[in-house]
What does this fold into?
Amino acid sequence: MTSIVKPRIAHPSLPKNELGMTRRQYEGAMSTLCAGCGHDSVTAALVEACWGLSLRPEQLVKLSGIGCSSKTTAYFVGGAHGFNGVHGRMPSVATGANAANRELVYVGVSGDGDSLSIGLGQLAHAIRRNVNMLYIIENNGVYGLTKGQFSASADVGTKSKKGDANTQTPVDPVLLALTLGATFVARSFSGDKRQLVPLIQAGMRHQGFAIIDVLSPCVTFNDHEGSTKSYAFTREHYHPAVEADFVPRAAEIAVDYAEGASTVVDLHDGSRVRLRKLDPDYDPSDRAAAYAYIERRLRDGEYVTGLIHVGDGAASELHAVNQTSTTPLNRLPYEALSPGPEALGRLMARFR
Amino acid sequence: MQPTDTGQPDFFHQVVDCQWACPAHTDVPEYIRLIAQGRFGDAYLVNRESNVFPGILGRVCDRPCEPACRRGRVEEKPVAICRLKRVAADHREDVSDRLPRAPTEGNGRRIACIGAGPASLTVANDLLPLGYAVTVFEQYALTGGLMRTNIPAFRLPAAVLDDEIGAILAMGADLRLGTPVASMRALLEGGEFDAVFVGSGAPKGKELRLPGRADSDRIHIGIDWLHSIAFGHTAKIGERVLIIGVGNTAMDCCRSALRLGARDVKVMARKSRRFFKASEWELEDAEGEGVEIVINHAPKAFVIEDGRLTGMRFDVLEYQVEGERIVGERVTGERLIPCDDVILAIGQENAFPWIERDLGIEFDEWQVPKVDARTFQSTRPGVFFGGDAAFGPKNIIWAVEHGHQAAISIHRHCHGLPVAERPPRGVTLASRKMGLHEWSYKNDYNPAERRLVPHVALAERFKKIRIEVELGFTPEQTALEVQRCLNCDVQTVFQAKLCIECDACIDICPVDCLTITANGSEAELGERLKAPRRNPAAPLYVSAPLPQTARVMVKDEDLCVHCGLCAERCPTAAWDMQKSTVRIPHASDDEAPCQQPSRRKSA
It folds into this structure.
């Protein structure tokens, strides 16, 4: 926790985005997380990503549950909408909000406890329904707020701060999301903004449910020797399989890769993701192969990072499947939202 | 790049921009913190250690520190350093028992100081406590040199001069007023002195040889005219006055003219405002009193009718400017401006008719003595020059620094040590961390704007020439202005071996001055900084390779506001806030034996 407030002054030559705003104008309240928390770096990546997309703050909806991770939403884009839900219930709130107004950009920030323990059922159904949102799991393998017990994502054999080894098998959010049919699945590391920022931008622009599992070390309870989610361990066992560059709508792809190992994925709003495969055998469009690859690497103790799987999410997206109105509910006239007793009668007649 | 060697005294010194820019290296942030605590006497003594005349300089210093001030880079205006110095001087309690004193027994060496201006007085100030017998020769009946004769009393009251000069003389200097040195030969051959310091200033105003110059007694040399006001010989002037030249002397002349009865005062400048020599604030003060500054007028002739000066003719000029340089000029017309008096303020120079040219003291083709820029020794060992006498007109704070350096040289010369070898500078660092979130300095960034010093009302100030115009900061203004100082001497110190590369410092830094990146050349690192590098001259602070990835931490020192958030957010204390104290040696710190240990450490 910091007692000094971050001064309002900024570097005078900070670049401005299309809206004439600097990165500093996308910040939120001062973080009260521990100094050195990975989550604060995720916050910084979110700030950078939103600034880079020239997002108007009022276009953004930030949602979270309970936990250290879920405090993140207070720390970026102060002018955005926000909802801090009950423990593990953020996906329901996100689904409802998205159903009511499909024109906003939804970013949920959760943790391994909030998403993989108490909220696992909620997460599973948000993926299954293919809610158009970006879902970030700040994954540190421990319950930080309750002083460092193992969470559902703790690896077998990882040591607690007091020296006990974990014996229970972990839930891996990436494998989970692949199984449930997510069309944008990524893993990254809070300490690698070069990788994380474009992933966040692409995830926000992806049509459908996009999940990023961010390894985000707990500096207080899980950054010791013997931990498999410390800064040092993550850096050593960190295996970028695919490098993703986010290419905004108007920009041309300026750089050519000689090896020809790059492929371009179009996102629905005209922007693109350019993928560079760092492992020639890896194919991010093949879900089954991606699953096998990740599982094999996990068994070897390696975190495969990057955009692990990307597919077409538009057809199975919540609104597409339910054929909802293209206009957000708050802009529909009252008569359309509440068509009156005659319309109700006609509807009821269909069931007689 | 190689890891930055922070043990080298200059690295952290140049981060403290004000102290680095000050010729005498006054420890500005330290004394501003003392003022903030209401410790005016302590603040005064910190000042006095380096600049000797805090009360005088707090009014009339040329303030090289202020344009350098870091605050001026993140905001429009720098900290009002000079005005805070005056607060310390004006409100100090009695510190006389904490001033340096001469030992009861001398060291037997005798030093002659020629001129009782700031350079000579600084030499006396540094050498008297070491047991030297110092004799000060002054041609006039009053001390202070150009500080008294050229700076009008409405900017610098005589009482302030008397007080601070008195403190030096009270150590036991042999002051000989009204005693011009007529012959350097006689002085040297008299054998009375072990060393001679020439601090006789630059007392000769430049002439403007134009038609009509010799035909009127209403054409004055600026510094001579100011001198005669200071000594009470001149008390009035005509209604319409032209000042030729636009330096600080011109500003003093035009404002003095207003106080002697002039109604229409014009300062005639040859070039446009961006090329003016006068300090911006002196121009503002003059214009605030109703002086008109006329640009692009080159003097051509004095107009004399019936033996009386009636005006002056000027060429009106137009310049071609490329960037900051004038590349061509052209006359576009002629203009006659009527006037009753003309004051020439186009520069001044040093002059030594009293130094014989066969004494081994060499002069160059412009009759300027050849003086070593580090030791201030002339080509004759044992004869030293300082202040305006050494390198022509500069300003008081430079004269003080010359005096300090010359005192070191004289001390070494008198003890048979080589004067070219100088005592080394040093730096010490001490952490300001008090607890988890506690620092022993106030690091909150206060967004207050620069305070403006209150002035005596226009109607009041012209009643007498000796009414000091500036009133000094009020207590409320002082309390706010001190908070604008960024404590640049509380340094961000980095220990690479502790870093876990969590990015916390980089994410929190309000001015984006930190970057973790692969090492490279300075140009490459400059390209990879998180925010653009604005000033390539400002140093990059580069760490040793970091333990986990072998990348390096790079800090662009240029815009750091020393808020300490990097250290506050660092989980491993790899960043720490440490106060740097730069040790600037004076004569008493030298290896030559001293009669009595120095009493200069004050706070």
